[in-house]
């Protein structure tokens, strides 16, 4: 009897789904649902390829492993070892949910929670991936003071206003005051974090988790032919290496170069030793005698040379710590590219979803455009993308997050 009512339920569900499917096919041509191929009776993916294992690719891998369990094969194809490639490997590591003007960004708190969950998972394998459990944004003008005081007033659980004396005691720099960002806001060593996150994916299913190093000129059509699903999250490599044979201009994104200076100090005695932001940033590295100063925003095709980089960084960060600029020795200049999405009504939000450019693989998804918000957004957007992949259909996700198809 119980068995028979179960069968009846399944039958009724199938009829309802069929009717819904027909209803969907009568949507107006401009509705997102009608543009997306609807697969009613899809099967779950079993063999997934992810091209690019930076913040975007690894967050997606983790959420897919959690959703689909140990039996799904997840292969990450990357040009580099874990944590050593792309923008992620040169990021400042600053995690917080506010815009430069101190406004809470769209999905900022959901993003913070999601990234904190990923950090918990990564920390089990790499406890040193968190460098500081707070950071400081300082005010350099009266306008900044008003903006940051408002942030502290509206979001007291994350931001605390500090008058100049208190700011100096807390982080060694004075300015006109500033906010301390805490309670889930962190300074992360992104390379160590990604290594920890990959370990978390791998230990859930060691036999079915593969990291494969590839050449930039890989024939992707051939390489991905045996996979049922392909996710493209290769950061600027998507365009520089012509993975889709497409240019960044074919998407609502532009590539913005970021160069940073790693400085070495003979002793850490006078260095502020905290992460401080004011347009540019000065942030600690795992070695206590080293500090990272970042980053340029370069739109021109020719990169700034070393002197040009130091000049731009010094102009905007000298006041954070004159000591670092006077006494520090340059170890190296690092370079990376932000894939910066076009600004819309919610600011710069990432690009996720079924790819129209499926000439490489018939079932492809895209994850790019993390802009300068990789840490706050990779968790939540990787989570949403993995739901699309599991459902093999964007419809229900678009009902919950209608703005996510902004780029289509
Ligand atoms: C200088 C700088 C500082 C930043 N600081 C911060 C910060 O403090 N906080 C913050 O939230 N965000 C920061 N960002 C932004 C953040 O780094 C990015 O948003 C984020 O790293 C993008 O992640 P991604 O996975 O999309 O791309 P990427 O990090 O670029 O990862 C792409 C991956 O794909 C691989 N790949 C590339 N080409 C190929 C190919 N042809 N085949 C296979 N694999 C390939 C790469 O090796 C890499 O592993 C910064 C960015 C820059 C440039």
TrEMBL record:
Q: Give GO cellular component annotations, separated by semicolons.
A: cytoplasm
Which PANTHER family does this UniProt record tie to the protein? FAD-DEPENDENT OXIDOREDUCTASE FAMILY PROTEIN, SARCOSINE DEHYDROGENASE-RELATED
List residues of the FAD dependent oxidoreductase domain: 48-387
Q: Does the keyword Signal apply?
A: yes
Signal sequence coordinates: 1-25
* InterPro entries in alphabetical order: FAD-dep_OxRdtase, FAD/NAD-bd_sf
What name does the UniProt record give this protein? Answer: FAD dependent oxidoreductase domain-containing protein
Record-linked Pfam families = DAO
What UniProt keywords apply to this chain's record, in alphabetical order? Signal
Q: Does the keyword Signal apply?
A: yes
């Amino acid at each position: 009897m119980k068995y028979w009512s179960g069968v009846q339920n399944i039958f009724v569900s199938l009829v309802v789904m069929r009717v819904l499917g027909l209803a969907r096919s009568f949507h107006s041509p401009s509705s997102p649902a009608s543009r997306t191929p609807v697969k009613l009776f899809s099967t779950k993916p079993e063999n997934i390829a992810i091209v690019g294992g930076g913040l975007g690719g690894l967050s997606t891998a983790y959420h897919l492993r959690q959703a689909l369990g140990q039996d799904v094969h997840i292969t990450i194809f990357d040009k580099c070892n874990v944590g050593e490639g792309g923008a992620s490997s040169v990021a400042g590591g600053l995690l917080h949910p506010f815009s430069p003007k101190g406004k809470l960004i769209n999905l900022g708190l959901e993003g913070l929670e999601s990234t904190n969950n990923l950090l918990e998972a990564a920390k089990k394998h790499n406890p040193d991936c968190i460098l500081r459990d707070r950071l400081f944004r300082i005010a350099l003008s009266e306008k900044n003071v008003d903006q940051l005081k408002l942030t502290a007033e509206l979001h007291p659980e994350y931001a605390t206003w500090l008058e100049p004396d208190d700011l100096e005691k807390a982080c060694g720099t004075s300015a006109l005051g500033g906010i301390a960002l805490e309670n889930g806001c962190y300074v992360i060593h992104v390379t160590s974090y990604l290594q920890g996150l990959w370990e978390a994916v791998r230990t859930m299913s060691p036999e079915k988790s593969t990291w494969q190093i590839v050449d930039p000129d890989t024939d992707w059509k051939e390489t991905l032919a045996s996979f049922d699903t392909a996710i493209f999250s290769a950061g600027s490599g998507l365009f520089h290496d012509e993975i889709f044979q497409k240019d960044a201009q074919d998407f609502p994104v532009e590539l913005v170069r970021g160069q940073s200076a790693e400085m070495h100090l003979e002793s850490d005695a006078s260095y502020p030793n905290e992460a401080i932001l004011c347009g540019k940033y000065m942030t600690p590295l795992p070695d206590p005698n080293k500090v990272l100063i970042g980053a340029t925003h370069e739109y021109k095709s020719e990169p700034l040379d070393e002197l040009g980089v130091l000049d731009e960084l010094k102009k905007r960060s000298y006041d954070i710590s004159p000591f670092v600029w006077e006494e520090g020795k340059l170890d190296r200049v690092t370079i990376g590219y932000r894939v910066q999405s076009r600004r819309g009504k919610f600011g710069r939000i990432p690009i996720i979803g079924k790819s129209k450019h499926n000439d490489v693989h018939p079932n492809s998804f895209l994850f790019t455009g993390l802009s300068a918000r990789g840490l706050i957004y990779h968790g939540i957007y990787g989570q949403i993308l993995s739901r699309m992949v599991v459902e093999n259909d964007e419809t229900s996700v678009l009902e919950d997050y209608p703005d996510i198809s902004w780029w289509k």
